[in-house]
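Hey, why these numbers?
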Amino acid sequence: MRRPKSQTIEEQRFHVAIRGLFALFFFLYFYRSQDAAVALAQHQLSLGQTSYHPLVGAVVLTALLMGLQALVLRVAKIAERLYILTFVPSAVCAVLLTAFVPYYRPSALVLTLVVLIVSAVIICRRPQRTERKPMLSVRLLHCLMLIAYMGFAGNTNDVLNYEVRTSRLLSDCNYEQALEVGKKSLSSSERLVAMRAYAMSHLPGGLGEQLFTRPLESGGSRQLFLLPADTSSVLFPPDSLYSFLSGEPADSLELGFTAYSRDVFKRFAQVNPAGPSRDYWLCALLLDKDLQAFAQELPKYYEVADSLILPKAYAEALVLVNRQQTDTLLHCANPNVLENYLDFKDKERKISPSAARRNLLYKEYGNTYWWYYFYGGELKEKGNWTNVF
């Protein structure tokens, strides 16, 4: 691009440095920060027919936005002192690509309108004859303000990032790695729980051993399943889950998951009585806190005896069953389960008020069915596991 004769060497170097800074930021913005949002946006626009490659996508989008800046600089003929404003259209396009997935965010739109209005006012303002070019520090400050706008208006949804990353790993059958995504975060969603449950079902111990060791939502058994309507919201196809369970996807769960799950299990129990459907069924009852039905169904699929060890969640649930239904005792050989439960209840009585009890007990017993049964849902305060332990 030809440079104006009046442009000094220092100004040219400044332009090169700023262009390099924005190119690097755009690349990291799409490759690291907004990867999930762009991937989901492409998935929705293509109706699931194409997939997004993070590295290639970041390079292409960066090149397009830098090309847009060069075009604006050539066509608009913006004054030298307003050089930073030539990046505003590119920054706005970057935000519009990511800020409204998976849902509309009014704050991002308002902030974008403010940036556009302020930029237009600055461009239209007639400079005074004696007005000098801004100092380097001021121009760098304007650059950082534009970058800050992208940071605040862009998609900052951690759960969306977890869902997309988990979806990709599940599609590649990397189940252990899928469970590592967001492991230190308490943030979750029903779709994320369903995908994690699918991953757990492919690992030793299955759902009965691991389901209640991770954050759960307050939707009960609904969170174990992905509906066909979720196809546009996640990269992992819901049909894969139903195929894994040897069942057909439901159009809706208006009749309740329990009725649907019972129908699915009955139809395929004879074909694969030891398959994953049994654990989905038993865990669905636990998520719905239906201990009476759980006590009736468990012996149908697992042998319950003093000499046999059951999956962790089932053993913990049996403690509650035995204390609520003394006429029908079911025992298993899991060591120290009853002692841990008594310790849980003892600490529960010693902590007040209820809000503090809920969170403090989570530190030690948040990975048990007991905590879910008595407190369930989400924690009052979301954060990292490191803030809890």
User: Anything to note?
Assistant: The longest helix spans residues 9-33. The chain has two domains: 9-126+133-156, 159-388. Residues 378-389 have pLDDT under 50 and may be disordered.
